[in-house]
Amino acid sequence: MTLYFAADRTLGKLAKWLRILGFDTTFEIDDSAELFYEHLAINRIVLTRTGTIKKQFSDHRLVFITSNYLDVQLKQVIAEIGIRPADTRPFSRCIDCNIPIVDADPDDVRCLIPDYIYEIHNEFHKCVQCNRIFWPGSHTKRSLARIEHLFD
Length: 152
Ligand SMILES: [Zn+2]
What we know:
Blueprint: E1 4-7, H1 12-20, E2 24-27, H2 33-41, E3 45-48, H3 51-56, E4 62-64, H4 70-81, E5 102-104, H5 106-109, H6 115-120, E6 124-126, E7 133-134, H7 138-150
Parallel strand pairs: 1-2, 1-3, 3-4
Antiparallel strand pairs: 5-6, 6-7
Bound molecules: zinc ion (ZN).
């Protein structure tokens, strides 16, 4: 199941976490207004907390978010859209750029990361847009625990 989301300006954290789960998610603040509405036109699922947007996009697939709490928001999206753990691709996408990250050769990223990280890891990924380097770390473990909790 390939899902595309568009989050309104009040839902930045939710957008970030949908990207962590691997879903293509545009965030209103990242785009010009024109581009954001263009994105909506290609049938993204609208995520909003705003009544006027709910009305305006009543012909779209839409989740009207009711909670202020991130975990509750994520669980609402998962429940209403029917997302299963197998639909997710955790840590496959740049949190900032919303594009898939790619494998990186350790030798190519050596000068971009701390020596001790290079010494203990042999698997690296990078975002070709912002050049950020990713490796399996403690943050990933904490995030994975949070993701598992979402599907309890
Ligand atoms: Zn990036």
